[in-house]
């Protein structure tokens, strides 16, 4: 049987970053992807993803700070830019479930610069918005955009360039940890690995349950829509920020990015589907809801041009899972709960450190609690 130091299951953003960092550490790594590389059935395709430090919990602010450095390090290795800094604003309606104070105190604790703005200041600075009274806004100049599919492709290419073996269209069917590593059973033969990094997002529990482990997950089909403003220049990144509306229903969006459109979406569609039930057909109801929000909040956004579907696998409180299994420590699990792209190179580095060094300098203390017994 072929043997490797580490096997990675899943070549979305997190698995690709893990394979890259493992290969850079010089270990013998094999990575499996059930579909073709770059497929659109998971969570890591399409164009833009928000990169930000502005979180309501200091642990995420710290991890995001590390991720900015990891992105810069990866850009230097790849010789390519993936990060575009645009500035970003988080809107917190005062009556809503998210307090601006949680964001400002977390940013203060980590020392990240920001401005706390009222509606009048926002509407003056960015007249494209119509922000009502009773909304507090946190502006962070370091917020930006990462190109999703381009950076994932580059991670896979650099993983290979540093010696990783990548096998796509090779589903992993079962993991068999035996105390001195793991036998990885794939549709195209078995391999033995000292450690396994399981980064299978919405498919994770399929491989965990036979190991009597599980993550409480809700999976759903997400969708993002590209709107066509009459005056796309008004939404250029020098004149319009990344934005997030944090409320009972959360929405988010981008300035123009590589095309004369602006992308926006509702976060957490609740359009519940397992990966096997995915339709890849956008919901008209969600599109109507988003278009009405855009019409009221960004009146110049224009008509919807196209909608792309995607997938979320989220834990009850959106907390990540980054941890070895207690009962099988040679299996290390990573799950991004629908907000991990910005952390991709940092999570990849952490997974490689856990697999090779047995630990990491990053604070991941909160990211093991959702790994529970299946029974
Ligand atoms: C619409 C949308 C917008 C988002 N916006 C943002 C944002 O602005 N900022 C941000 O930080 N995050 C954002 N996210 C979240 C982020 O994109 C995800 O957290 C991240 O892409 C997850 O990467 P992943 O590698 O864990 O998952 P995936 O990309 O789903 O990868 C898992 C891979 O595992 C493979 N796999 C599964 N089972 C097996 C098996 N048995 N054998 C082999 N392969 C297997 C799958 O085929 C898949 O390729 C967004 C997500 C969506 C859907």
Brief summary of the model shown:
The protein is of the alpha+beta class and 375 residues long. It has helices at residues 13-24, 58-78, 100-110, 119-125, 148-161, 204-208, 284-297, 344-356, and strands at residues 2-9, 29-32, 48-51, 83-85, 88-93, 115-117, 135-140, 144-147, 165-167, 172-177, 182-186, 189-198, 213-214, 218-227, 242-245, 250-253, 262-267, 304-314, 321-324, 331-335, 372-373. Strands 1, 2, 9, 10, 11, 12, 19 and 20 form an 8-stranded mixed beta sheet that branches. It has an 8-stranded mixed beta sheet with strand order 6-7-5-15-16-17-14-18, sandwiched between helices. A 3-stranded antiparallel beta sheet has the order 3-8-4.
């Amino acid at each position: 049987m072929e043997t490797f130091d580490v096997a990675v299951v899943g070549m979305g953003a997190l698995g690709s970053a893990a394979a890259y960092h493992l290969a850079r550490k010089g270990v013998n790594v094999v990575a499996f992807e059930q579909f073709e590389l770059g497929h659109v059935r998971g969570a890591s395709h399409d164009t833009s993803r928000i990169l930000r430090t502005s979180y309501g919990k200091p642990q995420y602010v710290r991890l995001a700070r590390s991720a900015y450095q990891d992105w810069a390090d990866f850009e230097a290795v790849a010789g390519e830019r993936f990060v575009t800094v645009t500035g970003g604003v988080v809107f917190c309606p005062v009556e809503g479930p998210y307090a601006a104070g949680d964001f400002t105190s977390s940013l203060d604790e980590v020392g990240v610069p920001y401005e706390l703005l009222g509606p009048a200041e926002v509407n003056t600075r960015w007249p494209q918005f119509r922000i009502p009274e009773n909304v507090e806004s946190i502006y962070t100049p370091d917020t930006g955009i990462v190109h999703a599919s381009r950076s994932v492709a580059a991670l896979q290419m650099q993983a290979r360039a540093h010696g990783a073996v990548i096998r796509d269209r090779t589903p992993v069917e079962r993991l068999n940890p035996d105390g001195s590593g793991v036998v990885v059973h794939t549709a195209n033969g078995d391999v033995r690995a000292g450690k396994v990094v399981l980064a299978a997002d919405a498919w994770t529990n399929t491989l965990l349950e036979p190991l009597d482990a599980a993550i409480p997950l809700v999976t759903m089909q997400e969708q993002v829509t590209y709107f066509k403003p009459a005056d796309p220049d008004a939404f250029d990144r020098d004149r319009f920020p990344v934005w997030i509306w944090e409320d009972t229903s959360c929405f988010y969006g981008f300035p123009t990015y590589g095309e004369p459109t602006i992308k926006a979406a509702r976060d957490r569609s609740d359009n519940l589907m397992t990966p096997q039930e995915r339709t890849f057909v956008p919901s008209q109801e969600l599109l109507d809801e988003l278009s009405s929000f855009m019409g009221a909040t960004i009146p110049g956004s224009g008509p919807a041009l196209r909608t792309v579907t995607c997938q979320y696998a989220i834990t009850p409180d959106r907390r990540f899972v980054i941890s070895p299994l207690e009962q099988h420590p040679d299996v290390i699990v990573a799950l991004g709960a629908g907000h991990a792209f910005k952390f991709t190179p940092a999570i990849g580095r952490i997974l490689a450190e856990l697999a090779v060094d047995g630990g990491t300098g990053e604070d991941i203390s909160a990211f093991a609690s959702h790994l529970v017994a299946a029974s």
